[in-house]
Amino acid sequence: MCIVNTTSTDADIEIHGWVKSVRVQKNVSFAEINDGLSFRGIQAILTKEQAKELTTGTSVKLRGRLVESIGSEQNRELQVDQVEILGKCDAATYPLQKKHHSFDYLREISHLRPRSNTFSALARVRNCAITGFENFFQKNEFLRVHTPILTASDCEGGSKVFKISTSHQPVRPTACNSSGNNLEYFDKPVYLTVSGQLHAEIMASSLSRVYTFGPVFRAEESVTSRHLAEFWMHEAEIAFLTQLADLLEFTEECIRSTTTHILESLSTDIDFFRKWIDAHLISRLESLNGAQFTRMTYTEAINILSNSKRKFEFTPKYGTTLKSEHEKFLANEHCRAPVFITDYPKSIKPFYMRMNNDGETVACFDLLVPKIGELVGGSLREERYEQLESQMIEKGLNVDEYQWYLDLRKYGSVPHGGFGIGFDRYLQFVTGIDNIRDVVAFPRAVGQCRF
Amino acid sequence: MCIVNTTSTDADIEIHGWVKSVRVQKNVSFAEINDGLSFRGIQAILTKEQAKELTTGTSVKLRGRLVESIGSEQNRELQVDQVEILGKCDAATYPLQKKHHSFDYLREISHLRPRSNTFSALARVRNCAITGFENFFQKNEFLRVHTPILTASDCEGGSKVFKISTSHQPVRPTACNSSGNNLEYFDKPVYLTVSGQLHAEIMASSLSRVYTFGPVFRAEESVTSRHLAEFWMHEAEIAFLTQLADLLEFTEECIRSTTTHILESLSTDIDFFRKWIDAHLISRLESLNGAQFTRMTYTEAINILSNSKRKFEFTPKYGTTLKSEHEKFLANEHCRAPVFITDYPKSIKPFYMRMNNDGETVACFDLLVPKIGELVGGSLREERYEQLESQMIEKGLNVDEYQWYLDLRKYGSVPHGGFGIGFDRYLQFVTGIDNIRDVVAFPRAVGQCRF
Question: Aminoacyl-transfer RNA synthetases class-II family profile domain: which residues (chains A, B) (predicted)?
Answer without folding.
Answer: 133-443
